[in-house]
Amino acid sequence: MKRFIPSLLSVALACASLESMAAADLIITNAKVFTGEPGQALQQAVAVEDGKILQVGSNAAINALADGKTQRIDLAGKVLMPGMIDTHSHPIMGAMASMGANLYDEVKPLAELEQWIIEQDNAGHARHADVILIDGASSAYWEQSAEIGKIFNQGRWADQPVVLNGIDGHTGWANNAMLKRVKIDAALVKSLPEKEQNYFGHAADFTPNGYLAENAWDRVRSQLPAPSHEFMLDATREAVKLNNQVGVTAWMDAAANAGIGDSVFELIPTDKTTGVLPLYRKLAENGELSAHVAALMIAHPKSKPADLAVIDKVMQQFKGVPNLSFPGIKVFADGVMEFPGQTAAVLDPFKNSLKRGELLIDPANFGQLVAAAEKRDWIVHMHAVGDRAVRETLNGVEYARKLNPTPMPHSISHLQLVNPKEFPRFKQLGVIASMQLLWATAESYTEELVKPYVSAMTYQYQYPARSLHKAGATIAGASDWPVSSPNPWNAIAQASTRKGPLGVLNAKESIDRESMFYAYTLNAAKALRLDQQIGSLAPGKQADLIVLDRDVFKVSDSELFDTQVLETFFAGKSVYRAETTPAVAQAL
Would the pLDDT of 582 be above 80? Predict the structure, then answer.
């Protein structure tokens, strides 16, 4: 009997200990919970402990995990999901653009454009030191480069540098005052190899008309007045804030080692090329980085395996920064499809120029770079717009698979054109398709700046989401902000409708919303190499959660497009809460 009493006591203590461990810090009940776990039905409630998911299940099961100290939230039937994840973004650049004069892709008549720029300048939004800089300019402007010059190269603008920053991130326009400052003239253009001459809009005598693409655009971008460190920190805070507002709690920064003045398209990084990484570190130190940042290091397209050592030195400088990880490198394989740029690498020549764009990687050696990255346990994230660039980047991964049959979650982003022969290769090689499906629309870009210059077959496979999905590819969501909105709900709805102002862009390539929910959660987490930590609501994963204002499983596509996030949690803590009516606030 004496031996029995201590045994009962030990059992009681063990039970008390288990009960204490099981008590949740936060429980969210009466919800429609999409967990992001494949095949799992919608759940009712979630329990959070110490910033991580403790359990997902029924209201009764989760309520049983609460004690007197547990915070309780009754969602009254609202949708709860994992935080959204963006697999290709430039958020600090996006925030900077939103803080100045920004056209947001709107095409204004030139006389109206001039007046708008004057108003922006008078309001103090347009001037960076002595340069007038306008962000978000549509590519539709570039075929009017000569006409733009007639306005902005005379009168009040004759000695005033003016720069239009293309929303695509690859192109821009500068007036003569700015071209003179950066020493771009007919003599320079004439002296360049033909490949580089193609990056400048110019007359027959090589006189530039202001239009610039790729590394020609870098010549201007790199000479713009540098913003202050304080402004850059504010932009970083704004980037986090704006992402949290639309439910994004993680992203892949696709050029994290590139700074404001760096020439990104053919960047040759050094161990001093730290880009925006110090900004992320500062926010993390201040406890302000309420997002996971998977920082990609840009590598030169023709890098040799030995060149990766320099990139590794940069990663080591920021090792251990909370919420900052380094999954691998980013490589530009080509440029853009739209006329007049046409720097995307295509299989069939563009109809107007009979050229095949610009392939930036060396097909003979790219596979060696992929294999070298894998030896360092790095992924390669590849910018590939044209079908030729897609094919050659996949060839590089295939080379690495022959050396090591175990797939790594490499990814290709943009994928505007993909030849059908490539569809099954994504699954075969384990390559993730990082897609900006907000771009899958019939508008001036696709209908006027691409369609006339490519074959009918090529055109019908623009942004082929359904074909890739049907072939077994893992689709991951992305924005490429500031090229387009960071709002994932716009892209999820657009992926389904593919409607635009000029019609529907190949309805056969639409993809359903539930597949897109996975594209922005678990699939995206795989692309960031963080799927063991985030991407679904599973016990042990970080409690990154969002509450939505509508039933995204039932509303129409147009209503889905306008979805609003009511609250965003990062590691179980509320980091954004919308202004709501008293009734909604009570539910939260």
Answer: no
Contact of 475 with 469, CB cutoff 8 Å? yes
**pLDDT digits 0-9 by tens, 506-518:** 999 999 999 999 9
Residue 131 pairs with which residues in a beta bridge? 128
Tokens of 92: 């600090």
- Kindly list the structural domains of the chain, giving each domain's residue range(s) and its CATH number in brackets, ordered by start: 4-82+541-587 (2.30.40.10), 130-221 (3.10.310), 229-527 (3.20.20.140)
Q: Name the region of 577 (left: φ>0; alpha: ψ -120 to 50; beta: rest).
A: beta
Q: Are 263 and 542 in contact (CB under 8 A)?
A: no
Long-range contacts of 185-190 (CB under 8 A, 24+ apart): none
Rounded CA separation 415/308 (Å) = 26
Q: Which helix (H) or strand (E) holds 181?
A: helix 176-181
Please tell me the number of Cα atoms within 13 Å of 415 on its side-chain side.
35
Residues 6+ apart with CB under 8 A from 41: none
> Tens digit of pLDDT for each residue in 95-114?
999 999 999 999 999 999 99
H or E element in which residue 411 lies: strand 411-414
What does pTM read for this prediction? Answer: 0.91
Are 155 and 471 spatial neighbours (Cβ–Cβ below 8 Å)? Answer: no
